[in-house]
Amino acid sequence: MKNRERRRGNPNFFSESFAASKDNASWQFDNPAPITNSSMIPLAKPFLGDDEIQAVAEVLHSGWVTQGPKAAAFEEAFAAFVGAEHACVVSNCTAALHLALKAAGVGPGGEVVTVSHTFIAAANAIHAVGARPVFVDIRPGTFNMNPSQIEAAITDRTRAILCVHQMGMPCELEAIVEIARRRSLPVIEDAACAVGSEIFWSGGWEKIGRPHGDVACFSFHPRKVITCGEGGMLTTSNSEWDQKFRLWRNQGSSVPAEARHTSKEIVFETYPEPGANYRMTDIQAAVGIEQLKHLPNFIACRRHLAERYRSLLAALPGFETPEEPEWARSNWQSYCVRLPDECVQRALMLSLREKSIATARGIMCIHREASWPEGAWKCAPSGLVESEKAQDRCILLPIFHEMGEEEQREVIGRVKEWKNVVLE
Fold first, then answer.
1. How far is CA 363 from the centre of its chain?
2. SS3 207
């Protein structure tokens, strides 16, 4: 357990290990702790260390814990990281999606082309502005929106295209943006899982969130690659939209609380538009700033883990690993494996759980949920066959920053063991 405890207690473990390596791509944890049935291998696990603890302590000692200077500093650092002109922190990614749709002019009676194969927050945000989702199917290899189906889903009611970078894998933005520009539609990127992912664009690699559409929305939930506990971010090059985000996240107040309290003059705020409390606290932002410093190392680690999974699963016929197009670099927020036809998803998940290995089913399909009955949504004429297959025939395997080789071999070994007993 010595090395595992060293990783948990030392927030600089990643940077120190990478600095000692001449080739980050080949880096791996040394001497991973042995795995026993009494030690659960989690699906995901945030990496929070002494740097984050100290940053939170400083905020608490400052006396200013609501949204303030740390939130502004987080915005500045995030914008610089992804190459965006503007970054605006909010309480979570659902709030970010809501504000993005509102800024794009989506409202009652409108339609938004998106995917059903994603977390329900996307549809809930569309519902929040009074619009209706129109679902298109996905590509089975990347689990992302199939651009060839977008045109058939567009009507005179369409107000935006909301594409998802599913599980951190960049979607086909070039094709999606081309359609949107030709049809005069804004593109909203649901980048909840895609912080640090990259796309080859205009001759070079660029971070998701620059953005390449009109606005990108991120999440800092603990399942994501970096976390603030909860939190969200919008990035855009549209200055007017950025100002709207800042107005709406603070109940429509014309002046942020920090500006009023630090002013030498008496400042009375006004409320020119309705808004909501979508603020991020400085406590959360302080954690986010420290997490962002570790992000390049986190991603290099996860890309190494994904490559090892691909290699290990190559020895198991029928198990399909996700595709990473040559123009994409995923952060591998999740690792989704497609099962052989004869494999029962729930049975394998239960078997792995009994061996102290956590998994999750394939990404949900919104149109199958009771909260979204027929009539509340539409879909492209081609249907949602691949979306439903992905939910029913895939599982997510554990992947987290501290995961060692022995843990990955344990996971795949247990999958192979179950396959040999049940299927052969």
1. 13
2. strand
pLDDT (0 to 100) of residue 421: 78
Assess whether 207 carries a catalytic annotation: no
Give the phi and the psi of residue 138 in degrees, each rounded to 5. -110, 165
CA angle, 365 then 370 then 371, to 5°:
90
Structural contact between residues 161 and 145, judged by C-beta atoms closer than 8 angstroms: no
Average pLDDT of 287-310? 98
Diameter of the chain by CA atoms? 78
pLDDT at 352: 97
Q: pTM score, two decimals? A: 0.89
Pairing of strands 204-207, 198-201: antiparallel
Q: How many CB atoms lie within 10 A of CB 345?
A: 16
pLDDT at 32 exceeding the cut of 50: no
- Find the catalytic residue in 70, 207, 224, 419: 224
Band (22; pLDDT cuts 50, 70, 90) = very low
Spatial separation of the C-alpha atoms in residues 324 and 417, rounded to whole Å: 28
